[in-house]
């Protein structure tokens, strides 16, 4: 979704803003723009398409002079991607310029209100009403102007604001959209995301909803809604700059796949203490856990798929019922939960709009909310009652890999933590823990065997459909495998619980259909093998993922991928890596723009 950056300091702002916007590219966008104070005037450049276009028309930012500015990458919601619709937007007299992430829900009403007052609009965006409202309300006090404008807005926003009569500073506000303040040395920033300015600072302030931020090169002041100067939560991040750069890999996705052994190691190190699990910010008593009647897992996309594996693991090992729902469904379902339900919200970004709304809904029912989040200081991390931070480090590719894997692992560790509290820490508890400690090596082994996957990708990349089937955890894996393939390769991929095939889907199978059969569970192997037989009989080419040595499927499978053998419950952690690599190599063979797939955004900050 849209990305915002703002700069005030001693350097030329435009090249720096462009650089920051490059770091926000991963969020997804279709146009971009920057505005700087140049000799007391607001000067602006905008371009449809890739950032290179903006880079080119501004000569890398050199054509815009000034040390204070704002920048934006736009992911179109209202109005097509075009130069006119891209941000910054300026007010009628040119006194204000605004960049915006979020959605102004009542923009039609405001547009009509302002049109009746004689304002004219150039773009089709919801954002333009913000800048025109600033113009409409402005008398002399800028704070008063911003406050009146905010009072009129419904929806979500992170805004960067330049006012021509305030050329030595910029303003910013947020409500339900991500925004951090970066504190540098004689320079200050705002950004939608930490990686945008990680090169310049690791110290951040996290503003609250409707705070007004005023930044110049020397200082940043934050005012609450009563116009009192306030101190907000500070954050020192330990992410390194390299982790937000490609470091020689052709794509972030491939780099992030390769970072998984380390991500797993860091996740384990953060909470496994000998044979105990201790989370830094989760301290449940045995009494609390014993009283739980239900867990409710809520998430979107891949995080939801991770949640499915978590559900199976927790139910099996804790014998507590676990319900799982897509956040976008949960929030309108009138869900049944109360104080004896623990709600687990999973989100890599911590900024997914539906997951935030679902979390808030769960809280209104009295449920305690535990967040599993990768981004420290994100909205979900801040609003949840308890937080477990996954240790994936910054994830830049739209297609999640290390984010997803650390979610799966964290859910397994949570399951072990809860089972220990319940006194269910017997033989399997110890086996799982031992295997989890060996996971970095097992994940590395899958990566080292990538050649077979590259060969398979070069054989099948021309297919225009693919099926993923499995049972139990393998079904959850099939869902993730299909999502990964379709989002980056644009191959139409479908996933099915293998037992469901003959209830309809098998009619799609014909000579040459490509079927990935996930058979990593000993318990369900025979059943899934029969399903593989059903599709093979109808002409499908079956590629089977199995534990090392479990090759009875050779009668049905054209190709077998053998994976390090672990307990059925832990197998998703290695099988997922294999599916990620397959999707990556297939997309690469098709020449796709892997890190920036069409129409997708990294963090989905609108409903
Ligand atoms: C997966 O590759 C996608 N990028 C997407 O499904 C993602 O998992 C989903 O949008 C949820 O995001 P979150 O984890 O940041 O909430």
Task: Name the descriptors.
607 residues; alpha/beta; Glutamine Phosphoribosylpyrophosphate, subunit 1, domain 1; Rossmann fold; 3 domains; six-stranded antiparallel beta sheet; globular; binds 2-deoxy-2-amino glucitol-6-phosphate
Explain what you see.
- It is a single chain.
- This protein has 607 residues and is an alpha/beta fold.
- It folds into three domains: 3-244, Aminohydrolase, N-terminal nucleophile (Ntn) domain (Glutamine Phosphoribosylpyrophosphate, subunit 1, domain 1); 252-446, Rossmann fold (3-Layer(aba) Sandwich), CATH 3.40.50; 451-589, 3-Layer(aba) Sandwich (Rossmann fold).
- It has 18 helices and 26 strands.
- The strands form five sheets. An eight-stranded antiparallel β-sheet has the order 3-2-4-1-10-9-11-14, with helices on one face. Strands 5-6-7-8-12-13 form a six-stranded antiparallel β-sheet. A five-stranded parallel β-sheet has the order 18-17-19-20-21, sandwiched between helices.
- Helix 9 runs antiparallel to helix 16 (473-489), helix 14 (427-448) runs parallel beside helix 18 (572-589) and helix 15 (450-460) crosses helix 18 (572-589).
- The termini are close together.
- The mean pLDDT is 94.
- The site of 2-deoxy-2-amino glucitol-6-phosphate (AGP) has 15 residues, from helix 9.
């Amino acid at each position: 979704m849209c990305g915002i950056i703002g700069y005030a300091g001693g350097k030329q702002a435009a090249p720096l803003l462009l650089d920051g916007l490059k770091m926000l590219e991963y969020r997804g966008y279709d146009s971009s723009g920057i505005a700087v104070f140049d000799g007391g005037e607001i000067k602006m450049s905008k371009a449809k398409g890739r950032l290179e276009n903006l880079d080119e028309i501004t000569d890398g930012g050199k054509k815009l002079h000034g040390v204070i500015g704002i920048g934006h990458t736009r992911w179109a919601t209202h109005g097509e991607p075009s130069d006119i619709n891209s941000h910054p937007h300026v007010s009628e007299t040119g006194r204000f310029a605004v960049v915006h992430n979020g959605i102004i829900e009542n923009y039609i009403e405001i547009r009509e209100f302002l049109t009746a007052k004689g304002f004219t609009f150039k773009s089709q965006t919801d954002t333009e009403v913000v800048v025109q409202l600033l113009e409409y309300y402005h008398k002399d006090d800028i704070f008063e102007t911003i406050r009146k404008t905010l009072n009129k807005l419904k929806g979500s926003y992170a805004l960067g604001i330049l006012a021509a009569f305030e050329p030595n500073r910029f303003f910013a506000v947020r409500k339900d959209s991500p925004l951090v303040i970066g504190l540098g040395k004689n320079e200050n920033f705002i950004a939608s995301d930490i990686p945008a300015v990680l090169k310049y600072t690791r110290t951040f302030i996290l503003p609250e909803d409707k705070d007004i931020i005023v930044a110049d090169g020397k200082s940043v002041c934050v005012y609450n809604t009563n116009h009192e100067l306030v101190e907000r939560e500070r954050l020192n991040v330990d992410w390194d700059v390299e982790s937000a750069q490609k470091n020689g890999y052709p794509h972030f996705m491939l780099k992030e796949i390769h970072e998984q052994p380390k991500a797993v190691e860091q996740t384990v190190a953060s909470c496994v203490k000998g044979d105990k699990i201790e989370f830094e910010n989760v301290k449940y008593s045995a009494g609390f856990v014993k009283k739980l009647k239900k867990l409710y897992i809520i998430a979107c996309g891949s995080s939801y798929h991770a949640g499915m594996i978590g559900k199976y693991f927790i139910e099996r090992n804790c014998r507590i019922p676990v319900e799982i729902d897509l956040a976008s469904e949960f929030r309108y379902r009138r869900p049944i939960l109360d104080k004896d339900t623990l709600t687990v919200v999973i989100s890599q970004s911590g900024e997914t709009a539906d997951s935030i709304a679902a979390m808030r809904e769960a809280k209104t029912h009295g449920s305690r909310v535990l967040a599993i989040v990768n981004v420290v200081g994100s909205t979900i991390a801040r609003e949840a009652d308890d937080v477990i931070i996954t240790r994936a480090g910054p994830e830049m590719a739209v297609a999640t890999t290390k984010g997803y894997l650390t979610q799966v692992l964290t859910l397994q560790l949570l399951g072990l933590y809860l089972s220990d509290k319940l006194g269910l820490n017997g033989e399997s508890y110890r086996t799982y823990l031992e295997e989890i400690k060996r996971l970095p090596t097992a994940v590395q082994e899958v990566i080292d065997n990538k050649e077979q996957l590259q060969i398979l990708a070069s054989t099948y990349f021309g297919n225009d459909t693919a099926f993923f089937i499995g049972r139990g955890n393998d079904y959850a894996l099939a869902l993730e495998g299909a999502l990964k393939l379709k989002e980056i390769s644009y191959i139409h991929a479908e996933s099915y619980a293998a037992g469901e095939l003959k209830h309809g889907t098998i009619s799609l199978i014909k000579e040459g259909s490509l079927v990935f059969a996930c058979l990593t569970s000993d318990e369900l192997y025979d059943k899934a093998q029969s399903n593989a037989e059903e599709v093979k009989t109808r002409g499908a080419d079956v590629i089977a993922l199995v534990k090392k040595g479990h090759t009875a499927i050779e009668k049905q499978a054209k190709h077998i991928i053998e994976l390090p053998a672990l307990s059925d419950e832990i197998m998703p952690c290695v099988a997922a890596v294999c599916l990620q690599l397959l999707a990556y190599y297939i997309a690469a063979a098709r020449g796709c723009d892997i890190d920036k797939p069409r129409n997708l955004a990294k963090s989905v900050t609108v409903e």
